[in-house]
Amino acid sequence: MIIPAIDLRDGRVVRLRQGDFTQTRTFDHDAVVLAQRYATAGAKWTHVVDLDGARAGRPAQLELLARIAGLGMQLQAGGGVRSHTDVERLLDAGVARVVVGSIAVRAPSVFADWLAAFGADRLCLALDVRRGNDGRWRPAVDAWQADSDADVGELLDGFRSAGLRHVLTTDIAQDGMGAGPNLDLYRELVARWPQLEWIASGGVRDRRDIDALRATGVAGCVAGTALLDGTLTLEEFATCSRAA
């Protein structure tokens, strides 16, 4: 499944390089019109990142998210989710699956409680990682502005026991760089945790990357810049979506 991504900052469609807010590209698109274009092309899901919410530590684009959800697609969205109430507000706005990152890394028991309260299909773990000099993958937190020392394997094993089903993973070094996705990372994750539904994010350039990701065994991938720049055309997106 190919999921179009829309990143929002001050209500505008943007893309960042490696999560760096000082390296922002702003696109001349209305977010709702863009989402409708993706829906018309066959998108069943749209992935929306509330960058303002990620920085503020609370959802900040609820009205706009509700308008996008009203188009009829399933909406996966996150950014700044820190509390049970934040999850409820996003679900009430029409979000089908809430993406949770920093709080899950910092307070795993809280996220485990949310899995029990809301159900595994209403939540997605955002596991955004950087490889350290020692070779370990470390999760990033606070809109990718800081790294955690949490052990990725321990987190995933614990959340799997708590019922986790959906994981969105980004190799931050590949995000927005036009170098392609980290295929080795996704092969490793799928091999170790085959029960999870992995969604690859970051680095998708064109249809060849989508085909390569499909071969790793991931359940889906997020495409943002490629669709905005046209290196993955809407016609190709539609064909890939039908093939999936």
Automatic annotation (TrEMBL):
A molecular function GO annotation: isomerase activity
Keywords of this entry: Amino-acid biosynthesis, Cytoplasm, Histidine biosynthesis, Isomerase
Subcellular location: Cytoplasm
InterPro entries in the cross-refs: Aldolase_TIM (IPR013785), His_biosynth (IPR006062), HisA/PriA (IPR023016), Isoase_HisA-like (IPR044524), RibuloseP-bd_barrel (IPR011060)
Gene3D superfamilies hit by this protein: Aldolase class I (3.20.20.70)
Keyword Cytoplasm annotated: yes
Keyword Protein biosynthesis: no
EC number(s) given by UniProt: 5.3.1.16
Main location: cytoplasm
Membership in a protein family: Belongs to the HisA/HisF family.
HAMAP family xref list: HisA
Protein name: 1-(5-phosphoribosyl)-5-[(5-phosphoribosylamino)methylideneamino] imidazole-4-carboxamide isomerase
Gene that produces this protein: hisA
